[in-house]
Amino acid sequence: MPRSNRFISPDEIASEHWFRLATGLCPACKMVQVLEAPPGDEIFTADYSYLTSGTTAMRGHLKGVAQSLKLELRGRPDPFVVELGCNDGAMLHTIAEAGIRHLGVEPTQVHADYAASRGVSTLTEFFNAELATRIRDTSGPADIIFAANTICEIQDIRQVFDGAAILLGPEGMLIFEDPYLGDLVEKNAFDQICDEHVFYFSVHSVSELAQRCGLEVIDVEHLPVGGGELRYRLARRGCYQTKPSVQYHLAREARAGLSQLETFVAFAERVHSIARQLTDVLSECRARGQRVVGYGATMKSATVTNFCHITTELVEFVCDTTPAKQGLLTPGAHLPVRPPEAFADPYPDVALMFAWNHEAEIRAKEQAFTNSGGRWLRYVPEVALER
Ligand code: TMP
Fold first, then answer.
1. In whole angstroms, what is the distance from residue 257 CA to residue 48 CA?
2. Is the pTM of this model over 0.90?
3. Residue 14 Cα to ligand 1 middle (Å)
Protein backbone atom coordinates (compact mmCIF):
# COMPACT_ATOMS: atom_id res chain seq x y z
CA MET A 1 0.00 0.00 0.00
CA PRO A 2 1.09 3.59 -0.48
CA ARG A 3 0.73 6.30 2.20
CA SER A 4 -3.01 6.82 2.37
CA ASN A 5 -2.89 10.59 2.60
CA ARG A 6 0.00 11.32 0.28
CA PHE A 7 -1.47 12.69 -2.93
CA ILE A 8 1.20 12.98 -5.58
CA SER A 9 1.99 14.69 -8.87
CA PRO A 10 2.76 12.53 -11.94
CA ASP A 11 6.51 13.09 -11.57
CA GLU A 12 6.42 11.60 -8.04
CA ILE A 13 5.00 8.23 -9.15
CA ALA A 14 8.42 6.59 -9.46
CA SER A 15 9.45 7.61 -5.94
CA GLU A 16 6.17 6.74 -4.24
CA HIS A 17 6.72 4.89 -0.96
CA TRP A 18 5.10 1.47 -0.61
CA PHE A 19 4.79 -0.67 2.47
CA ARG A 20 3.02 -3.81 3.60
CA LEU A 21 -0.32 -2.98 5.23
CA ALA A 22 -1.26 -5.75 7.63
CA THR A 23 -3.01 -5.80 10.98
CA GLY A 24 -2.56 -8.07 13.97
CA LEU A 25 -4.38 -8.87 17.20
CA CYS A 26 -2.25 -8.78 20.34
CA PRO A 27 -2.85 -12.06 22.19
CA ALA A 28 -2.21 -10.36 25.54
CA CYS A 29 -4.04 -7.01 25.50
CA LYS A 30 -6.30 -7.68 22.48
CA MET A 31 -5.25 -4.50 20.73
CA VAL A 32 -5.74 -4.62 16.96
CA GLN A 33 -2.98 -2.72 15.25
CA VAL A 34 -1.12 -2.13 12.02
CA LEU A 35 2.07 -4.16 12.04
CA GLU A 36 4.36 -2.03 9.86
CA ALA A 37 3.26 1.59 9.91
CA PRO A 38 5.67 4.24 8.61
CA PRO A 39 7.01 6.48 11.41
CA GLY A 40 4.81 9.42 12.39
CA ASP A 41 7.39 12.04 11.44
CA GLU A 42 7.24 10.70 7.86
CA ILE A 43 3.45 11.04 7.78
CA PHE A 44 2.72 14.28 9.60
CA THR A 45 5.07 16.37 7.53
CA ALA A 46 4.79 20.09 6.77
CA ASP A 47 2.52 19.39 3.76
CA TYR A 48 0.19 16.88 5.47
CA SER A 49 -3.13 17.56 3.73
CA TYR A 50 -5.89 16.37 6.09
CA LEU A 51 -7.96 19.28 7.38
CA THR A 52 -10.29 18.73 10.33
CA SER A 53 -12.43 21.68 9.23
CA GLY A 54 -12.67 20.21 5.73
CA THR A 55 -16.15 18.77 6.18
CA THR A 56 -19.32 20.30 7.60
CA ALA A 57 -19.93 17.18 9.68
CA MET A 58 -16.57 17.32 11.46
CA ARG A 59 -16.70 21.10 11.93
CA GLY A 60 -20.16 20.81 13.51
CA HIS A 61 -19.12 17.85 15.63
CA LEU A 62 -16.03 19.57 17.05
CA LYS A 63 -17.93 22.76 17.73
CA GLY A 64 -20.33 20.64 19.77
CA VAL A 65 -17.39 19.07 21.62
CA ALA A 66 -16.04 22.53 22.49
CA GLN A 67 -19.44 23.65 23.80
CA SER A 68 -19.74 20.58 26.02
CA LEU A 69 -16.19 20.98 27.34
CA LYS A 70 -16.99 24.61 28.20
CA LEU A 71 -20.01 23.45 30.20
CA GLU A 72 -17.98 20.74 31.90
CA LEU A 73 -15.34 23.26 32.99
CA ARG A 74 -17.82 25.81 34.31
CA GLY A 75 -17.09 26.71 37.91
CA ARG A 76 -13.50 25.44 37.86
CA PRO A 77 -10.94 28.12 38.71
CA ASP A 78 -8.71 28.91 35.71
CA PRO A 79 -9.15 25.60 33.88
CA PHE A 80 -6.56 24.37 31.38
CA VAL A 81 -7.42 22.35 28.26
CA VAL A 82 -4.84 20.60 26.10
CA GLU A 83 -5.71 19.14 22.72
CA LEU A 84 -3.47 16.53 21.11
CA GLY A 85 -3.47 16.89 17.31
CA CYS A 86 -5.48 20.10 17.29
CA ASN A 87 -5.07 20.26 13.48
CA ASP A 88 -6.49 23.59 12.21
CA GLY A 89 -8.01 24.50 15.56
CA ALA A 90 -11.53 23.35 14.65
CA MET A 91 -12.27 22.52 18.30
CA LEU A 92 -9.84 24.70 20.25
CA HIS A 93 -10.71 28.01 18.60
CA THR A 94 -14.09 27.92 20.38
CA ILE A 95 -12.27 27.24 23.67
CA ALA A 96 -9.87 30.11 22.89
CA GLU A 97 -12.77 32.47 22.10
CA ALA A 98 -14.26 31.65 25.50
CA GLY A 99 -11.02 32.86 27.11
CA ILE A 100 -10.20 29.42 28.54
CA ARG A 101 -6.52 28.60 29.01
CA HIS A 102 -5.57 26.04 26.40
CA LEU A 103 -2.78 24.55 24.32
CA GLY A 104 -2.95 22.72 20.99
CA VAL A 105 -0.17 20.22 20.36
CA GLU A 106 0.07 19.83 16.59
CA PRO A 107 3.12 18.41 14.77
CA THR A 108 2.06 19.64 11.30
CA GLN A 109 3.36 23.18 10.95
CA VAL A 110 0.83 24.41 8.39
CA HIS A 111 -2.11 23.35 10.57
CA ALA A 112 -0.53 24.70 13.75
CA ASP A 113 0.00 28.04 11.97
CA TYR A 114 -3.58 28.15 10.79
CA ALA A 115 -4.86 27.29 14.28
CA ALA A 116 -2.63 30.06 15.68
CA SER A 117 -4.13 32.52 13.18
CA ARG A 118 -7.52 31.71 14.73
CA GLY A 119 -6.27 32.65 18.20
CA VAL A 120 -5.27 29.16 19.33
CA SER A 121 -2.05 28.71 21.35
CA THR A 122 -0.08 25.93 19.72
CA LEU A 123 3.10 23.88 20.09
CA THR A 124 4.42 22.28 16.90
CA GLU A 125 5.64 19.04 18.43
CA PHE A 126 4.74 15.39 18.93
CA PHE A 127 3.17 14.66 22.31
CA ASN A 128 5.12 12.36 24.63
CA ALA A 129 6.00 12.02 28.31
CA GLU A 130 8.84 14.54 28.06
CA LEU A 131 6.62 17.18 26.46
CA ALA A 132 3.89 16.44 29.01
CA THR A 133 6.36 17.19 31.80
CA ARG A 134 7.41 20.44 30.12
CA ILE A 135 3.80 21.57 29.66
CA ARG A 136 2.95 20.72 33.27
CA ASP A 137 6.03 22.58 34.53
CA THR A 138 5.24 25.73 32.53
CA SER A 139 1.43 25.82 32.48
CA GLY A 140 0.37 23.56 35.32
CA PRO A 141 -1.73 20.38 35.26
CA ALA A 142 -4.49 19.93 32.69
CA ASP A 143 -8.14 19.68 33.61
CA ILE A 144 -8.91 18.07 30.28
CA ILE A 145 -6.73 16.51 27.62
CA PHE A 146 -8.77 16.06 24.48
CA ALA A 147 -7.97 14.31 21.21
CA ALA A 148 -10.10 13.46 18.17
CA ASN A 149 -8.84 11.03 15.55
CA THR A 150 -5.32 11.45 16.86
CA ILE A 151 -4.42 8.88 19.51
CA CYS A 152 -5.11 5.92 17.21
CA GLU A 153 -2.48 7.42 14.89
CA ILE A 154 0.39 7.62 17.38
CA GLN A 155 2.65 4.59 17.20
CA ASP A 156 4.31 5.04 20.55
CA ILE A 157 0.97 4.99 22.31
CA ARG A 158 2.53 4.23 25.65
CA GLN A 159 4.14 7.69 25.52
CA VAL A 160 0.70 9.26 25.07
CA PHE A 161 -0.87 7.47 28.00
CA ASP A 162 2.18 7.97 30.23
CA GLY A 163 2.25 11.63 29.14
CA ALA A 164 -1.45 12.01 29.99
CA ALA A 165 -0.82 10.50 33.42
CA ILE A 166 1.91 13.11 33.98
CA LEU A 167 -0.03 16.11 32.65
CA LEU A 168 -3.49 15.49 34.10
CA GLY A 169 -4.42 17.18 37.33
CA PRO A 170 -5.61 14.92 40.19
CA GLU A 171 -9.21 15.07 38.90
CA GLY A 172 -8.32 15.67 35.27
CA MET A 173 -9.68 13.65 32.39
CA LEU A 174 -8.29 12.34 29.15
CA ILE A 175 -11.15 12.41 26.65
CA PHE A 176 -10.51 10.99 23.22
CA GLU A 177 -12.50 9.75 20.26
CA ASP A 178 -11.34 7.40 17.55
CA PRO A 179 -12.79 4.94 15.03
CA TYR A 180 -14.30 1.95 16.85
CA LEU A 181 -13.22 -1.60 16.12
CA GLY A 182 -16.79 -2.79 16.79
CA ASP A 183 -18.14 -0.61 13.96
CA LEU A 184 -15.30 -1.52 11.65
CA VAL A 185 -16.01 -5.25 11.98
CA GLU A 186 -19.81 -4.91 11.97
CA LYS A 187 -19.85 -2.66 8.88
CA ASN A 188 -17.09 -4.52 7.01
CA ALA A 189 -15.39 -1.12 6.91
CA PHE A 190 -12.00 -2.49 5.90
CA ASP A 191 -11.16 0.85 4.29
CA GLN A 192 -10.68 2.33 7.77
CA ILE A 193 -7.48 0.29 7.86
CA CYS A 194 -4.58 2.38 6.61
CA ASP A 195 -1.08 3.50 7.58
CA GLU A 196 -2.27 6.45 9.65
CA HIS A 197 -4.65 4.44 11.81
CA VAL A 198 -2.10 2.45 13.75
CA PHE A 199 -4.61 1.25 16.38
CA TYR A 200 -8.20 0.03 16.09
CA PHE A 201 -9.45 0.51 19.62
CA SER A 202 -12.00 -1.41 21.61
CA VAL A 203 -13.06 -0.69 25.19
CA HIS A 204 -11.26 -3.88 26.14
CA SER A 205 -7.90 -2.89 24.63
CA VAL A 206 -8.09 0.73 25.81
CA SER A 207 -8.91 -0.46 29.35
CA GLU A 208 -5.87 -2.75 29.33
CA LEU A 209 -3.61 0.07 28.18
CA ALA A 210 -5.07 2.56 30.66
CA GLN A 211 -4.52 0.15 33.51
CA ARG A 212 -0.79 -0.10 32.71
CA CYS A 213 -0.47 3.68 33.06
CA GLY A 214 -2.40 4.20 36.29
CA LEU A 215 -5.54 5.33 34.46
CA GLU A 216 -8.94 3.75 33.90
CA VAL A 217 -11.80 4.09 31.46
CA ILE A 218 -14.70 5.63 33.36
CA ASP A 219 -17.17 6.25 30.54
CA VAL A 220 -17.64 5.53 26.85
CA GLU A 221 -20.05 6.98 24.36
CA HIS A 222 -20.79 5.87 20.82
CA LEU A 223 -20.54 8.60 18.17
CA PRO A 224 -22.05 8.47 14.69
CA VAL A 225 -19.19 10.49 13.11
CA GLY A 226 -16.36 9.11 11.00
CA GLY A 227 -18.14 5.83 10.23
CA GLY A 228 -18.61 4.99 13.91
CA GLU A 229 -16.38 6.09 16.75
CA LEU A 230 -16.19 5.74 20.52
CA ARG A 231 -15.44 8.59 22.89
CA TYR A 232 -13.46 7.33 25.89
CA ARG A 233 -13.13 9.17 29.18
CA LEU A 234 -10.15 8.19 31.28
CA ALA A 235 -9.11 9.38 34.71
CA ARG A 236 -6.72 8.38 37.44
CA ARG A 237 -7.63 4.97 38.81
CA GLY A 238 -10.17 5.20 41.59
CA CYS A 239 -10.84 8.92 41.15
CA TYR A 240 -14.32 8.61 39.65
CA GLN A 241 -17.00 5.96 39.66
CA THR A 242 -17.10 3.95 36.44
CA LYS A 243 -20.28 4.50 34.43
CA PRO A 244 -22.42 1.50 33.34
CA SER A 245 -21.57 2.32 29.69
CA VAL A 246 -18.15 0.71 30.18
CA GLN A 247 -19.53 -2.65 31.28
CA TYR A 248 -22.23 -2.44 28.60
CA HIS A 249 -19.66 -2.05 25.82
CA LEU A 250 -17.33 -4.69 27.26
CA ALA A 251 -20.21 -7.19 27.27
CA ARG A 252 -21.14 -6.27 23.67
CA GLU A 253 -17.52 -6.67 22.59
CA ALA A 254 -17.36 -10.10 24.20
CA ARG A 255 -20.52 -11.13 22.31
CA ALA A 256 -19.07 -9.79 19.04
CA GLY A 257 -15.84 -11.76 19.62
CA LEU A 258 -13.63 -8.68 19.34
CA SER A 259 -10.86 -10.39 21.29
CA GLN A 260 -10.84 -13.54 19.18
CA LEU A 261 -8.75 -14.21 16.12
CA GLU A 262 -11.54 -16.20 14.41
CA THR A 263 -13.65 -13.01 14.27
CA PHE A 264 -10.97 -11.31 12.18
CA VAL A 265 -10.38 -14.35 9.97
CA ALA A 266 -14.09 -14.29 9.11
CA PHE A 267 -13.88 -10.49 8.61
CA ALA A 268 -11.00 -10.94 6.15
CA GLU A 269 -13.06 -13.46 4.15
CA ARG A 270 -15.94 -10.98 3.93
CA VAL A 271 -13.54 -8.25 2.81
CA HIS A 272 -12.13 -10.39 -0.02
CA SER A 273 -15.65 -11.14 -1.17
CA ILE A 274 -16.56 -7.41 -1.15
CA ALA A 275 -13.42 -6.59 -3.14
CA ARG A 276 -14.32 -9.19 -5.79
CA GLN A 277 -17.91 -7.95 -6.03
CA LEU A 278 -16.86 -4.31 -6.26
CA THR A 279 -14.43 -4.87 -9.12
CA ASP A 280 -17.02 -7.04 -10.89
CA VAL A 281 -19.65 -4.29 -10.68
CA LEU A 282 -17.18 -1.64 -11.84
CA SER A 283 -16.01 -3.82 -14.75
CA GLU A 284 -19.62 -4.48 -15.78
CA CYS A 285 -20.39 -0.73 -15.74
CA ARG A 286 -17.35 -0.02 -17.90
CA ALA A 287 -18.22 -2.89 -20.27
CA ARG A 288 -21.60 -1.20 -20.77
CA GLY A 289 -19.75 2.01 -21.67
CA GLN A 290 -20.76 3.79 -18.47
CA ARG A 291 -18.59 6.44 -16.83
CA VAL A 292 -17.73 5.95 -13.15
CA VAL A 293 -16.39 8.75 -10.93
CA GLY A 294 -15.26 8.43 -7.32
CA TYR A 295 -16.74 10.78 -4.71
CA GLY A 296 -14.36 11.97 -1.96
CA ALA A 297 -10.60 11.36 -2.13
CA THR A 298 -10.65 10.01 1.41
CA MET A 299 -7.84 8.14 3.14
CA LYS A 300 -10.25 5.21 3.05
CA SER A 301 -10.33 5.35 -0.75
CA ALA A 302 -6.58 4.68 -0.87
CA THR A 303 -7.17 1.36 0.87
CA VAL A 304 -10.08 0.37 -1.38
CA THR A 305 -8.53 1.42 -4.69
CA ASN A 306 -5.23 -0.27 -3.96
CA PHE A 307 -6.67 -3.40 -2.38
CA CYS A 308 -9.13 -3.83 -5.28
CA HIS A 309 -6.71 -2.60 -7.99
CA ILE A 310 -9.06 0.17 -9.10
CA THR A 311 -7.28 2.26 -11.71
CA THR A 312 -8.47 4.87 -14.23
CA GLU A 313 -9.74 2.03 -16.43
CA LEU A 314 -12.52 1.55 -13.90
CA VAL A 315 -12.85 4.97 -12.22
CA GLU A 316 -12.17 8.05 -14.35
CA PHE A 317 -11.31 10.46 -11.53
CA VAL A 318 -12.23 11.34 -7.95
CA CYS A 319 -13.86 14.64 -7.04
CA ASP A 320 -12.96 16.25 -3.72
CA THR A 321 -13.55 19.60 -2.05
CA THR A 322 -10.04 19.80 -0.51
CA PRO A 323 -8.00 22.31 -2.57
CA ALA A 324 -4.68 20.70 -1.49
CA LYS A 325 -5.70 17.38 -3.09
CA GLN A 326 -7.07 18.81 -6.34
CA GLY A 327 -4.84 18.50 -9.41
CA LEU A 328 -2.90 15.63 -7.82
CA LEU A 329 -3.20 11.84 -8.11
CA THR A 330 -4.61 9.54 -5.45
CA PRO A 331 -1.99 7.44 -3.64
CA GLY A 332 -1.04 4.22 -5.42
CA ALA A 333 -4.02 3.97 -7.75
CA HIS A 334 -3.17 7.37 -9.32
CA LEU A 335 -6.72 8.47 -10.03
CA PRO A 336 -6.77 12.20 -10.83
CA VAL A 337 -8.38 14.35 -8.11
CA ARG A 338 -10.64 17.06 -9.48
CA PRO A 339 -12.71 19.80 -7.84
CA PRO A 340 -16.39 19.10 -7.13
CA GLU A 341 -17.48 21.09 -10.21
CA ALA A 342 -15.93 18.37 -12.42
CA PHE A 343 -18.50 15.91 -11.05
CA ALA A 344 -21.34 17.69 -12.86
CA ASP A 345 -19.42 18.39 -16.07
CA PRO A 346 -21.16 16.24 -17.23
CA TYR A 347 -22.48 13.90 -14.52
CA PRO A 348 -21.12 10.34 -14.72
CA ASP A 349 -23.46 7.34 -14.93
CA VAL A 350 -22.22 5.95 -11.61
CA ALA A 351 -20.62 7.61 -8.58
CA LEU A 352 -18.54 5.44 -6.28
CA MET A 353 -19.16 6.63 -2.72
CA PHE A 354 -15.69 6.75 -1.17
CA ALA A 355 -16.75 9.29 1.50
CA TRP A 356 -19.47 6.95 2.81
CA ASN A 357 -19.20 8.43 6.30
CA HIS A 358 -20.66 11.66 4.82
CA GLU A 359 -23.24 9.88 2.70
CA ALA A 360 -26.33 11.73 3.94
CA GLU A 361 -24.71 15.15 3.42
CA ILE A 362 -23.42 14.21 -0.03
CA ARG A 363 -26.65 12.67 -1.27
CA ALA A 364 -28.63 15.72 -0.15
CA LYS A 365 -26.20 18.02 -1.93
CA GLU A 366 -26.03 15.93 -5.11
CA GLN A 367 -29.75 15.51 -5.66
CA ALA A 368 -29.33 16.80 -9.24
CA PHE A 369 -27.03 13.86 -9.98
CA THR A 370 -29.69 11.37 -8.92
CA ASN A 371 -32.34 13.36 -10.80
CA SER A 372 -30.19 13.14 -13.93
CA GLY A 373 -30.38 9.34 -13.69
CA GLY A 374 -27.01 8.91 -11.95
CA ARG A 375 -26.58 5.97 -9.58
CA TRP A 376 -24.57 5.65 -6.39
CA LEU A 377 -22.35 2.64 -5.87
CA ARG A 378 -21.35 1.75 -2.32
CA TYR A 379 -19.26 -1.02 -0.79
CA VAL A 380 -19.89 -0.52 2.96
CA PRO A 381 -21.33 -2.61 4.57
CA GLU A 382 -21.79 -4.48 1.26
CA VAL A 383 -21.58 -3.78 -2.45
CA ALA A 384 -24.76 -2.16 -3.73
CA LEU A 385 -25.41 -0.29 -6.98
CA GLU A 386 -28.59 1.75 -6.86
CA ARG A 387 -31.29 0.68 -9.29
P1 TMP B 1 -13.01 12.14 5.93
O2 TMP B 1 -13.67 10.85 5.56
O3 TMP B 1 -11.68 11.95 6.55
O4 TMP B 1 -13.93 13.06 6.67
O5 TMP B 1 -12.67 12.89 4.55
C6 TMP B 1 -13.68 13.25 3.69
C7 TMP B 1 -13.08 13.62 2.33
O8 TMP B 1 -14.14 13.72 1.40
C9 TMP B 1 -12.37 14.96 2.32
O10 TMP B 1 -11.24 14.87 1.46
C11 TMP B 1 -13.39 15.90 1.72
C12 TMP B 1 -14.19 15.00 0.83
N13 TMP B 1 -15.58 15.42 0.67
C14 TMP B 1 -15.98 15.91 -0.56
O15 TMP B 1 -15.19 15.99 -1.49
N16 TMP B 1 -17.27 16.32 -0.69
C17 TMP B 1 -18.16 16.28 0.34
O18 TMP B 1 -19.31 16.68 0.16
C19 TMP B 1 -17.73 15.74 1.60
C20 TMP B 1 -18.69 15.67 2.74
C21 TMP B 1 -16.43 15.33 1.72
1. 36
2. yes
3. 27
